[in-house]
Specification:
Layout lengths: L4 E8 L5 E9 L8 E2 L11 H18 L1 E5 L1
Parallel strand pairs: 1-4
Antiparallel strand pairs: 1-2, 2-3
Length: about 70
């Protein structure tokens, strides 16, 4: 079973502009194609612990999954 993870995505636009953002990413499955959130994640939480969890989890996911390039 595929589960979501944080994914660093390199966005490449037609005129050559490149931006990077960390998104929630959902790998392809039998039911649907791969997908990710339209906007990058926000570093918001109810506590310092929540924000640190997001940062640490995103960093571990990026180390594991690398960078995905998306061309528009």
């Amino acid at each position: 079973m595929n589960t979501w993870h944080y994914q660093l995505i390199k966005h490449v636009y037609p005129k050559g502009e490149i931006t990077y953002g960390v998104h929630e990413y959902y790998p392809a499955s039998d039911e649907m194609d791969e997908t990710w959130t339209i906007t990058p994640i926000a570093l918001l939480g109810d506590s310092e612990k929540d924000v640190l969890w997001i940062l640490n989890t995103a960093l571990e996911d990026i180390k594991k999954h690398g960078v995905k390039e998306v061309k528009y």
